[in-house]
C-alpha cells in the first residue's frame, strides 16, 4: 500500500484582497505590489512542485477528491454561517465578517469545500485500509475556524468536518488530533471541547495566535475532561524541544487515549524563517516528528495516520519541510535535504536554553499527571 497525496490545483486559486501581510490596507498601510496575505498559494504549490522535481511524487498515490457536501459541512458549521459564506461567494467574494483576515474571491465557498473534501477523502481512505497513510494538501487551512466564524485564514474546519463525516459512516469511534501548527488549534478545540471521543492536542507558541487561547488549564469540559491538551511553548523553541514535547507529553497522552486514528494538523509555521512565529524548527524536525508519529500509530492504531496541511508562510522553507514529512510517511529514499538547516538550531542547539525548555516540559508533565 502507498501513501496517499490529496491535492487539487483549484485549492491554489483561492485568494482574497485588501490586506498587506495580515493588516487591512488603508490609512497609512500601503497595498503591497505583489501578494497580500501571508497565506499565499505559492507556499503550497511549491510543495507539489518540489515533489515533482525530486520524483517523490511518483512514489505517492496522487488524487483529488469530491467537494465536501452541505451535509458534511453542517455537521460542524451553523446554517447561518454557511448561508452567509455561500451567498457572498456566489456574488463577488469578500469576507463574512469584515477585517477578519479571511477574504475570498467569487467561488471561494466551493474552493474551501474542496479543501475539506481532500481531508475527508484522505481520512476515509486510511480508515478503510486503502492507503498506508495519507497527506492532504488542504487550502484554505481549517484549524482556527469556529462553527459560526471564519478566522485566521481558515474558512471551514477541515479536520473537524472530516472527523464528523468519518464518524457518520461508522468508520471509527475515537479520533486523536495532534496540531503542531505553531498557532493554537482553537477551532478544533472549541468544536470537540465536550466530546470525550476526540482527543485534541495543540503544540503552539505561547500566546501567539489567537493571543488569548491555548492555555494548559483548558483540558476539556464535562465528561470530556482530559480530552484536550494545550502545550504552549516559549518563543525560541527548536528541534530538540519539539521532540522532547512529543516524547514526554504527546505520545504518553496518545497511548493512554488509545485512538482508532491519529490526525496531524500539520502547519509548517514553526519553521525558523516563518514570518508569523518565533520558533526554530527545520525540515529535520518535521521528519523526526513524523517518524515518532508513525511509530506511535503503529503501536496503538494499526498505522492509521493522516496529515492535513494547515499554516506555514515561508515560500522557500515550507516545501522542504513538507517534502521531509512525505519522504518519512512513504519511507522513500528520495531526500530533498534542507538548504536552510545551517541556520537552524538542530545543528548546534543552545544547551543552556534547552535546560530552560526542558524544565518547562517537566512542569507540564506534572500538571498533566503523566507518569
Ligand atoms: Zn499557523
Architecture blueprint of SSEs:
Elements: E1 3-6, H1 9-12, E2 19-20, E3 23-24, H2 41-54, E4 60-63, H3 70-74, H4 79-91, H5 108-127, E5 133-136, H6 158-168, E6 175-179, H7 186-191, E7 198-205, E8 228-233, H8 239-257, E9 261-266, H9 283-300, E10 305-309, H10 317-330, H11 351-367
Parallel strand pairs: 1-4, 1-5, 5-10, 6-7, 6-9, 7-8, 9-10
Antiparallel strand pairs: 2-3
The chain binds zinc ion (ZN).
Zinc ion binds near residues 182, 267 and 310.
Structural class: alpha/beta
The low-confidence runs, each spanning 5 or more residues with pLDDT under 50, are none
First-to-last CA distance: 36 Å
Largest sheet descriptor: 8 strands, parallel
Determine and state the CATH class. Answer: Alpha Beta
* Level-2 CATH architecture: 3-Layer(aba) Sandwich
Amino acid at each position: 500500500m502507498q501513501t496517499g497525496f490529496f491535492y487539487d490545483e483549484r485549492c491554489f486559486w483561492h485568494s482574497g484582497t485588501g490586506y498587506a501581510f495580515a493588516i487591512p490596507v488603508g490609512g497609512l498601510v500601503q497595498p503591497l505590489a505583489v501578494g497580500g496575505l501571508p497565506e499565499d498559494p505559492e507556499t503550497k504549490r511549491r510543495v507539489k512542485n518540489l515533489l515533482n522535481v525530486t520524483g517523490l511524487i511518483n512514489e505517492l498515490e496522487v488524487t483529488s477528491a469530491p467537494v465536501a457536501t452541505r451535509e458534511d459541512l453542517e455537521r460542524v458549521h451553523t446554517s447561518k454561517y454557511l448561508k452567509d459564506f455561500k451567498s457572498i461567494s456566489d456574488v463577488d467574494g469578500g469576507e463574512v465578517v469584515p477585517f477578519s483576515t479571511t477574504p475570498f474571491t467569487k467561488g471561494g465557498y466551493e474552493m474551501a469545500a474542496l479543501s475539506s473534501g481532500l481531508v475527508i477523502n484522505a481520512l476515509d481512505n486510511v480508515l478503510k485500509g486503502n492507503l498506508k497513510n495519507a497527506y492532504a494538501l488542504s487550502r484554505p487551512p481549517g484549524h482556527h475556524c469556529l462553527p459560526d466564524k471564519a478566522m485566521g485564514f481558515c474558512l471551514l474546519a477541515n479536520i473537524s468536518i472530516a472527523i464528523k463525516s468519518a464518524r457518520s459512516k461508522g468508520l471509527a469511534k475515537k479520533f486523536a488530533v495532534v496540531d503542531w501548527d505553531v498557532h493554537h488549534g482553537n477551532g478544533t478545540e472549541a468544536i470537540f471541547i465536550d466530546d470525550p471521543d476526540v482527543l485534541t492536542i495543540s503544540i503552539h507558541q505561547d500566546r501567539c495566535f489567537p493571543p488569548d487561547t491555548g492555555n494548559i488549564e483548558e483540558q476539556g469540559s464535562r465528561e470530556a475532561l482530559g480530552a484536550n491538551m494545550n502545550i504552549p511553548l516559549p518563543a525560541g523553541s527548536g528541534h530538540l524541544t519539539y521532540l522532547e514535547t512529543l516524547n514526554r507529553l504527546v505520545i504518553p497522552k496518545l497511548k493512554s487515549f488509545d485512538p482508532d486514528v491519529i490526525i496531524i494538523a500539520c502547519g509548517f509555521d514553526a519553521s525558523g524563517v516563518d514570518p508569523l512565529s518565533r520558533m526554530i524548527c527545520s525540515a529535520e524536525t518535521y521528519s523526526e516528528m513524523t517518524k515518532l508519529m508513525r511509530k506511535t500509530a503503529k503501536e496503538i492504531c494499526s498505522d492509521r495516520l493522516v496529515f492535513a496541511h494547515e499554516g506555514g508562510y515561508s515560500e522557500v522553507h515550507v516545501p522542504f519541510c513538507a517534502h521531509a514529512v512525505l519522504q518519512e510517511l512513504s519511507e522513500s529514499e528520495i531526500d530533498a535535504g534542507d538548504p536552510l538547516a545551517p541556520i537552524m538550531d538542530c545543528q548546534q542547539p543552545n544547551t543552556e536554553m534547552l535546560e530552560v525548555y526542558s524544565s518547562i516540559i517537566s512542569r507540564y508533565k506534572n500538571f498533566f499527571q503523566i507518569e
